[in-house]
Amino acid sequence: MLESLLYPKTVAVMGASRTPGKVGYEIAANLIKGGFEGDIVPVNPSGGEILGHKLYTSLEEYGKPIEMSVISVPTATVREAVISSLRAGAKAITIITAGFKETGKEGAALEREITELARSHGARVMGPNCLGLINTHHKMNASFASYMPEPGGISVLSQSGALCTAILDWAASRKMGLATLLSIGNKADLDETDFLAAFADDDDTKVVVGYLESIASGDEFVRVAESVAAIKPVVILKTGTTTAGSKAASSHTGALAGADIAYGAAFKRAGVIRAESFEALFDYATALAMQPIPASDRVAIITNAGGPGIMAADAVEHSGMRVATLHPGTATALRLKLPAAASVGNPIDVLGDADPERYAAAVEAAQADPDVDAIIVILTPQAMTKPLETAREIAKRARGEKPLLASFMGGEDVMPGREELVASNLPDYPSPERAVAALKAMVDYGAWRRRPPRVVTRFPVNRKRVDRIISRQLRTGRLYVGEVKAKEILQAYDFCVPDGRLVSTVEEAVDAAPRIGYPLAMKIVSPDIIHKSDIGGVKLFLSSAQEVADAFELMMLRIGRKAPEAMLEGVYLEHMVPKGREVILGMTRDPQFGPMLMFGLGGIFVEVMKDVTFHLAPITSEEAMQMLMGTRSYKLLEGVRGEAGVNLSAIGEALQRISQLVTDFPQIAELDINPFIVGVFGDESVAADARIQLSAGGAQ
Which of 94, 185, 460, 498 has the most CB atoms lying inside 10 A of its own CB? Predict the structure, then answer.
């Protein structure tokens, strides 16, 4: 796929210039100086030559077919250059020129016209408004970047041309090789999903790195990214995420979700490693490109200074990984090789006067330890430290079975050692914390790769009942589904809801109360009142006919004063459920990625701490449990200080049933079950309150 773009045999440069410093000159010069082995066809109506190559006045003068065209001409003549390229047989077109949809409606219209023109001829377009592309293994620098990196295993796609140049500068400073670098610009035709699919089939690409400001098609991106991540790591820095879209949400779930949360959930599903910064992007990519994926998360730390060793151990623990408990045989082996004052626990402290041989012995022992999955080696520059020689000894002992990451701390003194490590395919970081963060990314990716096959359970449910309720709501233009109908929908999907009745007079309330059973909850029912408790629309623990009558009359009085325009359907009398742990279950439908499920503990954990997790639907039983374990308050659910834990499997099943419901009915835009009351194992879990928001157009 995209062979003509990534591995063309003939490249035309439309708008090649004889003047150094101009974009057209730099692109042609980069192709020539970079050693491109195919045919280079620079085109300029004025003719002449560039660096010993003939400048053709047109592709007609060249007279032979081309495979790729790189266009760097004024915006007004881009269409003409595209037509000329297509006539010459181009199957790939890279448009460097800016001035398209980023400038407004006219530019957007021209961009669409050019894209449709290319597609009608079976050609694909990268850009416009981009830096170009580099393929080191094809010796092709079809960009106006000033640096051609050495061949390597990291391929880069970026929406920002400026970031591409920063990446190239980073690669030069670290003496790191790259495979392919693509500046994808406006994404008029080819987008991140197309390039991800291409990298999956590219043998030269070991790790995919991306900088994205937007994603064209959420569903397609998740599908393709998941298939690529199953083969090779994908690390992405995503910017441009805000929570502005959540301000209009009517549910807790919608208010807590946002674009950033949605991308996080999508990346989690697809196995994409998310970098939070430019620094982390290449910290992770470097480790993944150079080292094997760890089998688990038990980390051995080797250091010549106590403080940095403790820093690393703290970072490992805080990340959720484990500081390995070394095998007894490892301590025995270390005592034979290290001074008596050295620590043979973990961290392994080889002392400040450590020579290269001590480091070598410690690395060998950690490599041989069956209870160690990964190794971090820390070096600080002491008077007797030999960074270069130590790096060489470490590299000799790196077997490639367990990942080994280094942190040679310092500046000029350790630089020779750092360069030796990178040359030996050992990632090095300026601080232990950054080394640990990179290792954590590797551990998480490994766990994702080893996950069981995704099997989504389908429960027997009453879809027809839900379809009737939703269809009736939409026919009457009522997009908000209140508690009564929302609970009917949940019952159809086998949720347990408390017994209750909708009543419209005080007499009906008093008559229904004993049949429902005391104690009772009373709630106002109105499509115009969403937050019932805010205006006195909820009354709890009613235990007699008189209390029911008094509560009804007082509620109607208060609502009449506080919401005089609200249309009232009556009040809902409901049997109060037994005490238990209150959690919130929900869903909001993201416009890019579809239904996102939410889980969190009720009360302060949602309102103040926002301790919630999200996951894209549909989910498996394993993913449901991961949602529970992803909250900081998970320990409360398990049970602490002698308090019994709750029925975790009941929460997991409830999340799966919501997943099935919102997948079956794309008309559901938002859903909250708050609270969902869950007790100890054996007690029935109950949906105590619920509300649903529909979308008039089906899926949002």
Answer: 94
